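Appendix B, record 7
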Amino acid sequence: MDGTNSTAFAGTAAQLPQVLHGQPGAVLLVRVADGVVLFANPLADQLAPGISLPCAVDDWSRAAGLQASDGIDISDPATGSSPLSRIARGEPVHGERVTAARSSDMSGAREALWVIGLPLSDAPVDELSGLALVALLPLREEGLVRDAKESAERLHSRAVLASDLSFTISDPTQPDNPLVWVNPAFERVTGYGREVLGQNCRFLQGPETDRDAVQRIRRALETGETITELLLNYRKDGTAFWNEVVISPVRSADGRVTHFVGVQSDVTMRVQAERERDAALAYARDARHRLEFLSRVTEQLSEVLDPDAAQDLLPSLVVPEFAQWAFATLLDGGGRTRHIHASHANPAMTAETDRFQELHDGLGDGSISMQVLHGELGPTLVTVTDDLVDAVATTETAQVLRRLGLGSAIVVPLRARGLVTGSLTLLSGPDRAAFTEDDLATASDLGARAGVALENARLYAQQRTSSETLQRSMLSPPTQSAGLSIATRYHPAAEAAQVGGDWYDAFTQPDGRTVVVIGDVMGHDVSAAAAMGQLRTLVRALAYDRSAQPDEVLRRLDEVLAGLGLTTLATAVVLQLDPESADGSRVIRWCTAGHLPPVVADPDGSVRFLAGEGIVLGLGAGQQRVQQEARLERGSTLLLYTDGLVERRDRPMDVRLGELRDVVHAVAGVEGADVETLCDQLLVRMLPDGSDDDVAIVAVRVTGT
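C-alpha cells (predicted):
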C-alpha cells in the first residue's frame, strides 16, 4: 500500500467507528457451497418476514426488497451480481450501500444499510468453515458515510471499511459459550488472535470493568436477545480501552440460537472526548450556579436595610445550599465579639444554634474565626478536628460545636472600606463532602459582597438616624390647650437621607387662641429641612406677634421671604381656634397656601373637608390670601396632614382623599378612638407598605373643659 493509500486508509478507519459503532445489525450465515441462508438473527427476520429458512440468498434478498443506492433491485439476476450473491459465492464484500423495503428495530424503511460479507474459510471448526458471515449495519451519519465511501473509492477497494470492524462468533451450544471465530481486526483491537478460540470472551474483562454491564450481557445471552453495551476492556498487553460491543443471536429455521455474532469497536477516543465535554459542561454549569448563588445572596442582603437584620440573615442564605450550617460574627469597637448569629440546615438544631449564639465569647483568640476577624488570617479552609475544637473553645462551646457538626470549615472576612467588620464561618458537617478550593474562592467572593452589603445597610441606618434626628429636632411637641386634645406624628420617608421639608406646629397665642400649622417645603434634602426650620420659626414668630390671624400670618410671611431674598417654595395651612364658647363649641379660622384641605369629623359621624384656596408661599409679596371661618362642635376632630399621607403614583388624588375620609370616619367616628390612636391608625391603614415621602400629621379633638 503506497503513502497516499495509507493516508486514506487511516482517515477512513478513523471515520468508520463514528458511522457504525453501537448499532445492532442484521446478521445472516450463508452456506457458500450452494448460496443458501441457513441462519438469521431477529433483526434479519424483521427485514424479510415470513420467509422460511433455509432459503436461497437471492430469495432472501428479494423478500427483504433490497435495492442498491441508485434504486435498482439487486435481487434481480438481470441487474447484475448483488453483494449477497457474491458473498454466497465465497467472495468478500467489504462495504456496499443498500436499502431494505421494511423498517426494523435498527433502521427505517429505505434507510441506508452497509453490507459486509466475510467468508469464514479460516474458521477452525468444520461447522463454520463453509459459511460466510453477512452483516447489514445501519448508517446514521450521512456526511461521515459519504466521506468513508469516497475514501474507499480512492483506494479502489472497500476492504478498508471492514478492516476496522472487529467480528467474533461464539457458540452457545458448547459449554461456556466459547469463541469459535475472530477476524483479523479483533487481533488488531485487542491483541488476542486465534489462540483465544475455545475460550469465553471474558478474558477481555479487568478490575475496572462494569460488573452491572457484564450482568446485562449475560442476561441477554441467556434470553437470546440483541444487546449493545459500553465496557472498559483490557488488551493483551494490559492497556485498557473502551469497547462498544453489539452482540446478536443467530437462529436456525426452528428458532434455536445457534451462534452469537459480536461486533466490537474501540471507542476510547470518543469516550474521552465525551468525558472532557461533560467535564467542561459540568464546570460551566457549576460556575453559572455559583454566580447565580452569589448574585441571589447579594440581592437578598441588599434588600435588608437594617444592619443587624442583614447580618442575622446572612447565615440562613448559605444554608443548606452551600453549607450544613454557618454563623456570622461581628466585633465591637474594642475588638470583642459582640454578636453571633447561626443557622443550621436541620430545624431540629435550633436550640443548639441558639445556645451557640449565647456563648459568643466561647471561641478563643486562637480560633480560625477570631484570627480572621482580627485580620491575622485571610480566607481559610481547614479540617475541624476534635483536638482543634478543644484547643480553641470552652468546654460547653466545644460540646455544642460537636452536636452541630464539624467536618471541614471555611472562614472568610466580611470587609468594607478596607476594614474587616466581621466574619462568616461555613461548616460542611460530617455528612457532606468536604469543602474544596473552589468553594473557598466562592466563599471569599461571598464575604466581599456580603461585607459591602452589610456596610451599606449600616451606612443607611446611620444616615436615616441622622436625618430623622435632624428632622425631629426641629419639630417640638405641641403645646396643649385647655379643652383640646392634640396629637402629632412625623413619619420619615423610607429612603435613607431623604430629609423632607414637612413640619407641624401647635401653640397658644397671647390672647388664648390656639394656632395649628401644617406645612411642606418643596424638596427632599438637607436644604429642604433647613428651609423648613426657617419657615416654622417665622410662622411661630409672626403668629405669636399681636395674636395675628391666619391670613395675616401668611401675607406677612410672603413679605418676609421676599424681603430676605429667600427663594423657598412651600405649602401650608395656618388654622386658629378660638377659646371655648358657652356651649362648648369653638370658632375656627384658617388660610390655605396651596396645601391639601384639612378634614373634620363631626360628632354626628359625618366627615368633611374644609375648603380653602391660595397659591404656595415664596412667590413674592402682595399675594391674595383668603381666610375661611367655621365652627367646631364639642367632640369634633380636626385633622391636618401633608401630601405624603395620601399621594401615590398609581392612584388618583381624589381616590386617595376618599380613602382618607373613610379611615377618619371609621376610626374617629365609628370606633371613637382618641387622637393618638387616630394618628397611629392613619399611618397603618393609609400607608401599609410605608411611604416614599415624609408624612406630618396633626390631630385636634375638641374635648371641652
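Remarks on this record: Residues 437-473 form the longest helix (37 residues). The chain has three domains: 167-248+257-266, 284-464, 474-702.
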